[in-house]
Design goal:
The complex is a heterodimer of chains A (about 525) and B (about 575). Chain A has about 525 residues and is α+β, with helices and mostly antiparallel strands. Chain A is built from 13 helices and 20 strands. In chain A, a hairpin with a 2-residue loop joins strand 14 and strand 15. By secondary structure, chain B is mostly helical. The chains are: A alpha+beta (about 525), B mainly alpha (about 575). Chains A and B meet through helix 1, helix 2, strand 3, strand 10 and strand 15 of A and helix 3, helix 6, helix 9, helix 11 and helix 14 of B.
C-alpha cells in the first residue's frame, strides 16, 4: 500500500508539473508567428538530363546486343550448376548417442506417407533389417483447451504405440499438469469439437527427458540460443500413442517424422545421399538425422554448389564481360562525343560516371534479375546462385571498365582561394552606421539567400551585427553571419565570421558554395562602395 | 489557448489510433515501430485536423499535435509492450521461480490498481529521458550538430508536406501504403542463401529482404550512417558469427535460415554489443571531451537546467524504495545503486548520440545495464523489472532518444524545445493508462492462445530473459564481450586508415543488432543517396522529402494491415 501511494504520488506530481510547464511555454509560443510558406524547388535539371542521357544510351542497338550476351551467359551459368546435399556433424549439440545405428527422417509438413516406403528409399535392400517407427509432431496454430488447467495445448506428439510404451512405460497419453501423478479423464476442446481421453499426469522434467533417439529431444526444436536447442515448455505438450493423437486431430494416417532403426549396429547404409535425393522427389522431406558410431550427422535439403559449379559461373561471367566490353568499346567514341557536347552546355563532369553506373546497373541487373528469377523457379536455388555470381561479377567488371573508359575530366583553376569561415578587411569607410546599411542592403537584395533575421548592437565604439540567411537552393540550409565593425584611426576593421548549418546533411561542395557566396557578397559590396568616388 | 486546445484534441485522436496500432503490432510481431510514430503522425495529424476544423493547421499547431500523438505512441513501449512481454514470460517460464509478481502480467482478470499504478509509475520514470534530452539538446543539436534523421523527417513532413503539390504528396504516400500493405499481406520478397552458406562458412549469413520500412528508413539516414549500418551488419554475419561457431558457442545447421541464425546468436550479439559499446563510448567521450566539458560547465552554471537534470536523476533513483520494499535486494546491488543511476544517465547520453546519427537506437545500447545489474548480484525478476531499461519497464534512454527527435523537429520549425519536451511527457503520462488498457484488451480478447498472438513465437526471446533472471552465468559470454571490444577497436583504426571518418562507430553498432537480411538494404540505400547527393541539393532534398512521405505512408500501411488482420483478412 505504501509503495502504491509512493508511486502514484510520483506519477501525479510529474504529470501536473509537466502540464503546467507545457502550458506555460506553449502560451508564449502561440504569440510567436512563423513563416508558413516554403519554397519547394521542383526543378531537378541535372537529374532530368542524366535520365535523358541514360535513356538515349539504353535505346541504342549495341545495348540490345549486350543484353542478349548477358542473358545467354547468365542462363548458361544457371544450366551448368551442380550441387550436393550437405551433411553436418552436430554431435557437439546432440551428443551422447551411444552405439546406436538409426536414421530420423523429418518431413517439412505432416503428410500421408507410408513409413515403410521411407525406409525402402533410405535403406534399399537392407529394409528388412530395419525397424520403422512413425511419429506425428504438430504445433497447433489454434491450441486445444483442457478442463485440467488454464494452460492450452500447443503441441501434440503421437508416437507409434509400441515405441511409446517402451519409451515411457505408459499405455495412456501423458500430460504435464498438477498434481503430476495418477491417470485422469481429460476433456479437450478446440477446432469445434470436444474429445475426452485418459491421460497420465507427469512431471515436466519427465517430458523434457524424453528423446526420440540418442539425445535428440522428442519436443520439437523451436530455435536455438547459442548452441542450445529451445523447445516448448512441457505444459503445452500432450504426448500419446500415434493412433490416439491422429484421432484427436483427425489426421488420418499422417506422419511428420519416421525413425528407421537398423537392428544390426554393424550394418552401414550405402548411397545414403542418393537415397535421400530420391526420397526428396517423392516426399516433402526436410532433413535426415543420422545416428551412427557415436556421431550425430544432419543431412539436409540445403543444396551446396560444387566447386566446379562455381568455376563454371565464373567462366561464363568472364565470357560475358569480354563480349560486353568489346561491344561497349565500339560505342565509346560516340559516348565521348555526347559527353563533350554536354560539358560545353554545363553538364557536370562527374555526371557521366553516374550515367554509366546507372546504365551498367540497369542492363546487367535488369537481365540478371529476370534470369535469376526464372532459374530460381524452374531450376532451383543453386542455379539461381550461379546466375547471381555471373551477374554480380559481370556488373563489377563492366562498371569499373565503363567508369575508366569515360573517366571524367579533372577541373583545375589557376587561382584557387578556398572559401573561409572568417574574413577580415580594412575599409576606409569610417561611419559604422553606413557600413551597417551597406551590409544589410547586400544581404537583402540577394539572389542566393533569404534574409531571415538581421540584428545589431553597439558595444562601446564597436558595432556587432548578426544576420541569419537561408539558402534559396534548398529549404533547410543556411548561414549565420556575424560581423564586428571596429573603428581604427583612419579606417574600420571589418571582421566577418560565417557558420553554415543544415537541417539535413549538406555536402561539402554546397557548404563551400554558401560560404563563398555570402562572404564575397558582403566583401564585394564594401569594397565597391569604397572604390566609388566620394 | 484555442490553438493549444485544437492541437491537443487532434493529437489525442491520432495518438489513440496509433497507440492501438503499435500495441497490436508489438503483440503480433514482437517489434515496436513507436520510435517512428512521429513521422506517421505528421500526416495523420494534418488529415485529422483538416477533417475536424476544415482548415490547415499552423506550424505550431501541427508540431504540437504530432508531439502529443508521438508521446501516446511511445508510451506503448513501457505499458502494453512490457505487459504483453511479461505475460509471455509468465506463460513460458515459471513465475514463482522467477518471483514474477502477478500484478505485472495478464492473469485473465480485470486490470488491478497495482498493475495500473506500477505501469504509470514506470512511464513516469521513463519521462526522465525527456528531461535529460532537454538538458542536453543544445549540446547535441547545436554543438555536435547531429542530424537526428527521424526528427528531420518529421520537420520535412510538417513543413514541406503542406507546400508540395497535392498530386505528388498523394503519390508518395500511396506508394508507401501500397508497398507496405502488400509486403505484410503477401510477405516481403526475399532471398536467403544462409542454408547453403553453412557448409561453406558455418555461421555466416547472406540474405536480402525487400523490407519497405527498413529501406525507407535507410534512405532517410545520412549517407555515412547508412554505409556504417550496412558494413556493421555484413561484417557481423560474415566474420563475427562464424567466429562464434568456431568457438563452439553458436550452432550452425544447414537447415537454419537467416532469422534462425540471428535469434540463436542474439545472446552473444548482446554480449558483443557490451564490448563494442564500451570501447566506442570511451572513444566518443574522449573525442568530445572539450565540448562535453563546456556543456557540463554550462549545466553547473545554469540553475534551471541543473534542476531538470537533478529531477531526472531523482526520478530514476526513486525506484530504489519500491525495490527495497518489494524484494529486499542483495547488499551489493544496494551499494552500486548510486553508480547505477549514473550509468543510466550515461547510457541516456550515448543513446541520444546513437539516435542523432542513426535515427533510432532501438535497444542497442542497453545490454550494458542488464550486465551491470547481473554482475551486482541482482537475481529474480523484480530488480530487472524496476531498474533494467533492456528487460524491465522504465526506459529513460529510449524516451531520451525519441524526445531529442521531437526537439530537433521543433527547432527546425522554430518551435522552442520546451514545447515538444513537456508535451511529450504529458502525452506519455496521459496516454499510459489508455495504451495499458489496449494491451489488456488485446490479451482479454485473444488470450495468449490465439493464432494472432502465437505464444511459441516468443519462446526464444523470453527464454533469454528467463536465464538472466535466474542468474544463469551463461547469459553473458566473456569471449563475445571481448570480440565486440576488439571489433570496435578494429573498426575505429580501419576507418581512420581508410579516411572514412564520417562513418560512425555507433552506426556500425546498429548494424550489429539488425537481422542479416536488411544489411544489404542499407548499402543499396547508401549508393542511392550518393548518386542523389552528387546530382545536386535539390535532388537530394527531394529524395528526403518523398522518402519521408513514403515512410509515413508505410506507417499507414501497417495500420491498414492491422485493421485487415482484426477483420480476419490475411
Amino acid at each position: 500500500m505504501l509503495v502504491q501511494l509512493y508511486i502514484i504520488a510520483i506519477y501525479i506530481s510529474l504529470l501536473l508539473s509537466a502540464v503546467y510547464l507545457a502550458m506555460k511555454y506553449s502560451k508564449a509560443e502561440t504569440i510567436h508567428r512563423r513563416k508558413e510558406a516554403v519554397n519547394v524547388r521542383s526543378a531537378a535539371t541535372r537529374l532530368y538530363l542524366m535520365a535523358k542521357l541514360s535513356t538515349l544510351i539504353l535505346k541504342k542497338p549495341f545495348t540490345a546486343i549486350i543484353l542478349l550476351t548477358l542473358g545467354l551467359s547468365t542462363a548458361a551459368a544457371a544450366y551448368s550448376a551442380s550441387s550436393t546435399s550437405s551433411i553436418t556433424d552436430v554431435t557437439k549439440t546432440f551428443g551422447g548417442v551411444g552405439e546406436g545405428n538409426a536414421y530420423l527422417v523429418e518431413l517439412s509438413q505432416p503428410s500421408s506417407v507410408d513409413p515403410r516406403n521411407v525406409s525402402a528409399f533410405l535403406c534399399g535392400g537392407l529394409s528388412s533389417y530395419c525397424e520403422v517407427v512413425p511419429f506425428l509432431r504438430i504445433s497447433l496454430s489454434e491450441p486445444l483447451r483442457t478442463n485440467l488447467s488454464k494452460t492450452p495445448l500447443y503441441v501434440l506428439i503421437g508416437i507409434q504405440r509400441r515405441y511409446y510404451e517402451g519409451l515411457t512405460g505408459f499405455r495412456t497419453a501423458m500430460y504435464s499438469a498438477p498434481p503430476y501423478e495418477g491417470v485422469m479423464a481429460v476433456k479437450l476442446s478446440g477446432a469445434g469439437k470436444v474429445n475426452v481421453i485418459k491421460v497420465r499426469l507427469v512431471n515436466e522434467s519427465f517430458v523434457k527427458s524424453l528423446k526420440i533417439y540418442g539425445s535428440l529431444p522428442i519436443l520439437p526444436v523451436e530455435g536455438f540460443i547459442g548452441s542450445e536447442p529451445v523447445t516448448p515448455p512441457p505444459k503445452y505438450v500432450l504426448i500419446g500413442p500415434l493412433d490416439e493423437v491422429r484421432e484427436l486431430l483427425g489426421a488420418g494416417n499422417q506422419v511428420s517424422d519416421v525413425l528407421v532403426v537398423v537392428k544390426d549396429r554393424q550394418l552401414e547404409i550405402k548411397n545414403l545421399v542418393t537415397g535421400f535425393e530420391a526420397m526428396r522427389k517423392a516426399y516433402p522431406v526436410k532433413d535426415v538425422w543420422i545416428f551412427r558410431e557415436g556421431h550425430v550427422l544432419l543431412l539436409t535439403d540445403a543444396q551446396v554448389p560444387t566447386p566446379s559449379s562455381i568455376i563454371a559461373s565464373l567462366i561464363t561471367a568472364g565470357i560475358a564481360v569480354l563480349l560486353s566490353i568489346s561491344l561497349f568499346n565500339a560505342a565509346v567514341p560516340y559516348l565521348k562525343r555526347i559527353y563533350w557536347h554536354l560539358i560545353l552546355e554545363g553538364f557536370p563532369p562527374w555526371a557521366m560516371s553516374v550515367v554509366m553506373l546507372f546504365y551498367v546497373s540497369v542492363t546487367v541487373w535488369g537481365v540478371g534479375a529476370g534470369v535469376i528469377s526464372w532459374s530460381f523457379s524452374s531450376l532451383g536455388s543453386v542455379s539461381a546462385f550461379n546466375s547471381l555470381i555471373t551477374t554480380a561479377v559481370s556488373w563489377g567488371f563492366l562498371a569499373i571498365y565503363s567508369g575508366k573508359a569515360l573517366k571524367p575530366l579533372t577541373l583545375k583553376t589557376d587561382v584557387y582561394i578556398p572559401p573561409t569561415e572568417r574574413y577580415t578587411l580594412l575599409t576606409t569607410i569610417k561611419d559604422p552606421t553606413r557600413l551597417k546599411h551597406l551590409i544589410r542592403a547586400s544581404l537583402e537584395g540577394n539572389e542566393f539567400f533569404d534574409l531571415e533575421g538581421f540584428e545589431h548592437a553597439v558595444v562601446g565604439e564597436e558595432v556587432v551585427i548578426h544576420a541569419r540567411l537561408t539558402y534559396k537552393e534548398s529549404w533547410g540550409s543556411g548561414l549565420d553571419v556575424s560581423v564586428v565593425l571596429t573603428p581604427e584611426k583612419e579606417a574600420t576593421l571589418v571582421t566577418l565570421t560565417a557558420i553554415t548549418w543544415g537541417i539535413e546533411e549538406v555536402s561539402e561542395a554546397v557548404t563551400r558554395n554558401m560560404l563563398g557566396l555570402a562572404l564575397s557578397r558582403i566583401v564585394g559590396v564594401i569594397k565597391s562602395w569604397e572604390l566609388m568616388p566620394q | 489557448m484555442g490553438e493549444i486546445r485544437r492541437s491537443v484534441v487532434v493529437g489525442l485522436v491520432s495518438g489513440a489510433f496509433m497507440g492501438f496500432i503499435d500495441t497490436y503490432g508489438y503483440a503480433v510481431t514482437g517489434y515496436t515501430t513507436s520510435e517512428l510514430a512521429g513521422v506517421v503522425a505528421s500526416i495523420l495529424v494534418l488529415v485529422i485536423y483538416r477533417v475536424i476544423y476544415r482548415r490547415q493547421p499552423s506550424i505550431f499547431e501541427h508540431v504540437l499535435g504530432v508531439v502529443v500523438s508521438f508521446g501516446i505512441s511511445l508510451s506503448t513501449a513501457m505499458t502494453s509492450g512490457m505487459y504483453i512481454t511479461y505475460t509471455m514470460l509468465a506463460e513460458v517460464g515459471n513465475p514463482s521461480a522467477l518471483r514474477l509478481p502477478e500484478w505485472l502480467y495478464f492473469t485473465g482478470t480485470a486490470l488491478s490498481p497495482s498493475t495500473v499504478s506500477f505501469y504509470l509509475y514506470a512511464t513516469a520514470i521513463s519521462g526522465a529521458g525527456a528531461l535529460i534530452a532537454y538538458v542536453f539538446h543544445k549540446h547535441y543539436v547545436e554543438i555536435e550538430k547531429l542530424p537526428f534523421p527521424i526528427g528531420s523527417a518529421m520537420s520535412v513532413m510538417i513543413e514541406v508536406g503542406k507546400a508540395i503539390r497535392r498530386g505528388a504528396l498523394i503519390l508518395a504516400v500511396s506508394a508507401g501504403i501500397i508497398l507496405e500493405f502488400a509486403a505484410i499481406m503477401l510477405g516481403n520478397p526475399s532471398a536467403d542463401l544462409t542454408p547453403s552458406m553453412q557448409s561453406m562458412l558455418p555461421g555466416s549469413s547472406i540474405a536480402i529482404s525487400a523490407d519497405v520500412f527498413v529501406f525507407l528508413l535507410a534512405l532517410l539516414l545520412p549517407l555515412n550512417t547508412s554505409l556504417g549500418v550496412g558494413l556493421g551488419n555484413v561484417v557481423t554475419y560474415m566474420f563475427l558469427t562464424p567466429l562464434l561457431v568456431s568457438e563452439g558457442l553458436l550452432i550452425s545447421l544447414p537447415s537454419m535460415s537467416s532469422s534462425d541464425l540471428a535469434s540463436a546468436a542474439a545472446p552473444y550479439t548482446a554480449s558483443m554489443i557490451i564490448g563494442f559499446l564500451t570501447v566506442s563510448s570511451l572513444i566518443y567521450f574522449y573525442q568530445a571531451r572539450k565540448a562535453l566539458r563546456e556543456t557540463l560547465r554550462y549545466l553547473r552554471l545554469s540553475r534551471y537546467l541543473l534542476r531538470y537534470f537533478t529531477a531526472s536523476a531523482a526520478l530514476i533513483g526513486s525506484a530504489a524504495l519500491p525495490l527495497y520494499i518489494l524484494c529486499r535486494p542483495p547488499i551489493t546491488l544496494l551499494a552500486i545503486l548510486p553508480a547505477y543511476v549514473g550509468l543510466q544517465l550515461f547510457l541516456a547520453l550515448v543513446t541520444i548520440k546513437v539516435v542523432g546519427e542513426a535515427g533510432t537506437a532501438s535497444q542497442s545500447t542497453l545490454p550494458v545495464a542488464t550486465l551491470s545489474l547481473f554482475a551486482s548480484g541482482a537475481r529474480h525478476s523484480m530488480p530487472y523489472v524496476l531498474l533494467d531499461p533492456y528487460t524491465g519497464v522504465p526506459m529513460p534512454q529510449f524516451v531520451a532518444g525519441a524526445s531529442m527527435n521531437a526537439i530537433k523537429a521543433g527547432k527546425a520549425l522554430d518551435v522552442d524545445p520546451e514545447v515538444p519536451t513537456f508535451w511529450l511527457v504529458v502525452a506519455m503520462l496521459a496516454g499510459a493508462p489508455l495504451t495499458l488498457a489496449y494491451g489488456h484488451l488485446l490479451l482479454s480478447v485473444f488470450g495468449v492462445s490465439s493464432p494472432k498472438l502465437n505464444l511459441l513465437r516468443w519462446v526464444p526471446v523470453v527464454t533469454w530473459m528467463d536465464t538472466v533472471y535466474r542468474g544463469d552465468l551463461t547469459s553473458f559470454n566473456a569471449f563475445s564481450i571481448f570480440l565486440g571490444a576488439a571489433f570496435a577497436a578494429t573498426v575505429f583504426i580501419g576507418l581512420k586508415a581508410l579516411k572514412l571518418g564520417g562513418v560512425s562507430l555507433y552506426a556500425v553498432l546498429i548494424g550489429m543488432t539488425l537481422t542479416p537480411d536488411v544489411g544489404l538494404l542499407f548499402l543499396i540505400a547508401a549508393a542511392v543517396k550518393y548518386v542523389a547527393f552528387r546530382a545536386g541539393t535539390d535532388v537530394y532534398e527531394s529524395l528526403l522529402a518523398y522518402t519521408s512521405m513514403a515512410l509515413a505512408g508505410a506507417g499507414i500501411g501497417v495500420a491498414l494491415s492491422v485493421i485487415a488482420s482484426l477483420l480476419g483478412v490475411g
